[in-house]
Write a structure and sequence with these properties.
By secondary structure, the chain is mainly alpha-helical. The chain has one domain. It contains five helices and no strands.
Length: 119
């Protein structure tokens, strides 16, 4: 439970369903919650994860469509190669920002650092 709580500290505005999942899991570990309660919050946390994934995927595909449109427009003349590069970079920046919105790298790094303090 400690690791889950520490991870939640790294997330800006964590979803309430994730917080509740930690609360119920801790209560379950202490014998204060039922298996049914644990399953309910687990499914809610999974729904939160899926919603975040869908939002990130939508942003990625929107950036991909923008890239494709820019690609088609830019390649009409050879003199627009610079505009092509800028459009490509902008589309990639948007997609990478969406993919990293949850801060997966920061969470992983913090978890690893904490874990290494014990070994």
């Amino acid at each position: 439970m400690w690791l889950a709580r520490e991870t939640l500290k790294l997330v800006k505005n964590p979803d309430i369903r994730s917080i509740e999942a930690c609360n119920v899991a801790e209560r379950y570990a202490n014998g204060e919650a039922t298996t049914e309660e644990l399953n309910d919050v687990a499914y809610a946390a999974i729904a939160a994860r899926d919603a975040a994934y869908a939002a990130n995927a939508a942003a990625y595909y929107a950036a991909d469509v923008a890239y494709d449109a820019a690609d088609a427009a830019v390649l009409t003349t050879a003199t627009d190669i610079a505009a092509y590069a800028v459009s490509y970079a902008a589309a990639n920046a948007v997609s990478y920002a969406a993919a990293n919105a949850a801060g997966y790298a920061a969470v992983y790094s913090a978890q690893l650092e904490k874990l290494l303090t014990y070994f």
